[in-house]
Amino acid sequence: MRVVGVNDVISELRNILSAIDVRHLYIFLDDFSELPEEAMRLLVDSLISPLTRWSEFIKFKIAAYPGRVYLGSLDKTKIEEFHLDIYGLYGSSGVVQMEDKAIEFVRRVVEKRIAHFCKADHGVYFSQRQNELWRLLFYASMANPRILGHLMLYAYESHLIYGDKIGVQAIQEAAHRYYEEKVSTFFTTSQYRMSFHERSSIFSLKELLEDIVGKARSIRQLDRKMRSRSYSSHFYVANKFDDLLSSLELEFFITKYFEQSDRSGSRVSVYALNYGLCTKYQINFGRPTERREDRLYFVDRLFDYNAILRAYMAANQEIVCKDCGEKYEISSLEHFKTFRMRCPKCPTGVCEVVNLSKKYGDMLEAISPELLLPKTELGILQILHNGDRQMVASEIASELDCSGQLVGRRAKNLSERALVKRARGTVYRYEITPKANAAYFDDSSAAELRLVDSDGGITGTAH
User: Fold this and answer.
1) Contacts of 379 (CB under 8 A, 6+ apart)
2) What is the residue-level pLDDT of the chain in tens, covering all 463 positions?
3) DSSP category for residue 259
4) Pair 315, 306: CB distance under 8 Å
5) What's the angle, vertex CA 378, arms to CA 373 and CA 380, rounded to 5?
6) What whole-number distance in Å separates Cα of residue 193 and Cα of residue 189?
7) Cα–Cα distance list, 80 to 51, 67, 75 (Å)
8) Domains of the chain
9) Quick check: helix, strand or coil at residue 65?
10) Distance in angstroms (rounded) separating the CA atoms of residues 410 and 367
11) From CA 438, how far away is CA 422, in angstroms rounded?
């Protein structure tokens, strides 16, 4: 900033734009939360904060996940927030109104896109029970337009091209396929990430997910005659556990559904399991709706999962000093936060919470170092594996939310390792090799959840 003379640059830019009646310069930053913490701090401290001096001219629009934002010296009172989560957008009047408005949003999205791209009425493609289908599409997508697009593509491939309309079965099958191909594969590729600490942290979250899904299945099995136990897709925890669940939410295993007070009057977060996951593991999704008191169904004490999260933290988390390596019990976390995570044993050390996977530790240790790859390369292999065809860089990039140039560079590296084939043409076309398929995708056990069934045995799939 000091060297370039940014005051003069912005002043000149402002004069140029004012000559064509442009009063504001908007800078859009997408996927802000995807940045590593160090890069996020650098961006805010070196670019965004200095430019806010010209806030009457320069306007930043930043897309980020709740709780994954670094503000630095920015004044939060001068930031206007727009929440795009369903509970943030539609939840001010209660869970019933939230669901109704989210379902209506899904209906509008589908109908308008069909009208625009297909020049037809949506009734041409959907069966007659459309109110039920809109609700089901909301459950399967959580009103996320990108997921909705995948579901429509899968329904097209499984039903429409054979002359069958989209009905309940088509949506359920599409949601199951989306979970298998786009969500659960997070664990398939994550076991090959470069950092053992990162791999262990991810698989510790798998252990947490297994505990959550196992509890949902056990509730379902307690007493099938009791109406209140026929649905177990949702659970609630204290708001303080939101950060712990944020990574599972980011990968769409769960979605924050609502915020409300539990039976004791404490504010809690209600989460929904992925609809495709529920289909796979035979968990009934939703809630009863016949009675007025059903709106409090999600905060029935049966769905209090706070104990599961506390047990997970005690078993899988510890506090470690980044300087001296000293370890502390996770029960001391609030004390450490009071003193800004400073290490009691060394003068300069700062501590961090570390997730460790004990159940999957041996499996992760046994992975050959030769198979380890950065996250982007693993993503490219995953997309090519799921597509099972040649793809161009722009197609792959749209799935990874990155540039085609980045995909091209990384795919070249994969080609040199005989993991990807590059076919030269007007543009390069990429295809996964049999070697890569055999090394990374032949064994799908990492994606399966190891659940304890009603007989006490371990199962990787639903019975």
Assistant:
1) 189, 399, 400
2) 567 778 888 899 999 999 999 999 999 998 888 788 889 999 999 889 988 888 889 999 999 887 778 888 888 888 888 888 888 888 888 888 999 999 999 999 999 999 999 999 988 999 877 788 999 999 999 999 999 999 999 999 999 999 999 999 999 999 999 999 999 999 999 999 878 778 888 899 999 999 999 999 988 655 444 554 579 999 999 998 998 898 899 899 999 999 988 888 889 999 999 999 999 999 999 988 877 777 888 988 999 999 999 999 888 888 999 888 888 988 888 888 888 899 998 878 899 888 888 788 888 888 889 999 998 999 999 999 988 899 999 999 988 878 899 999 999 999 999 999 999 888 999 999 999 999 999 887 888 998 875 445 555 554 3
3) E
4) no
5) 135
6) 7
7) 17, 15, 11
8) 6-82 (no CATH), 87-183 (no CATH), 312-364 (no CATH), 374-432 (1.10.10.10)
9) coil
10) 22
11) 18
Distance (Å, rounded) from C-alpha 451 to C-alpha 463?
Answer: 11
Task: Return the pLDDT at 462.
Answer: 46
Query: How far, in Å, CA of 440 to CA of 192, rounded?
Result: 8
Structure token pair of residue 381: 């292999």
First to last CA, the chain: 62
Helix (H) or strand (E) holding 318: strand 317-321
Distance (Å) of CA 20 to CA 7, 15, 259: 21, 9, 46
* CB distance 41 to 72 below 8 Å: yes
Q: Give backbone dihedrals phi and psi of 273, rounded to 5 degrees, phi first.
A: -70, 155
Phi–psi pair at 81, nearest 5 degrees: -105, 135
Tokens of 353: 């919470």
Contact 134, 106 (CB under 8 A): yes
d(CA 376, CA 400): 8
C-alpha distances (whole Å) from 138 to each of 145, 147, 283 are 10, 10, 17
**List of residues 6+ apart from 377 with CB closer than 8 A:** 410, 413, 414
Strand partners, 423: 429
Q: Nearest-CA neighbor of 443 among 266, 220, 208, 187?
A: 187
**What would the two tokens of residue 233 be?**
């897709």
Of 341, 359, 361, 366, which Cα lies nearest the Cα of 351? 341
The answer to whether the CB of 219 falls within 8 A of the CB of 283 is no
